Amino acid sequence: xDANAHEELDQIAHAxxxxxxxxxxTLGTGFFEKVYERALSKELTxxxxxxxxxxxxxxxxxxxxxxxxxxxxxxxxxxxxxxxCMERFANEHVAQCINYLKASGLRLAIHINFQKPRLDWKxxxxx
Length: 127
Known about the structure:
Blueprint: H1 3-27, H2 33-46, E1 51-61, E2 64-75, E3 79-84, H3 91-104, E4 108-113, E5 120-125
Helix pairs in contact: 1-2
């Protein structure tokens, strides 16, 4: 990835995190993940970012599809966003996200946790 592409991806990630803070500040805590996912999608769209929900990626085993992963959000066709409502991030969430990045061929994902009054997020880089 060249320097310009890296900088553009960082700008997208920064915009996603800013939008997540706006959603968190507006909605507060206590809703299901799907509510935050939809609100985040609307906020990102309002910020002129291309967003798709529940984008399917095939999981291949020896050239055959053995399953699919559905990304919560795909932003600008370059950044995966996983929305969570959980007590805290665990190692298995990071491992899961790395596998999602492998399946999608993308390099960066952001996990966002809306469970607590203070928004929690984590960048996950693959490759």
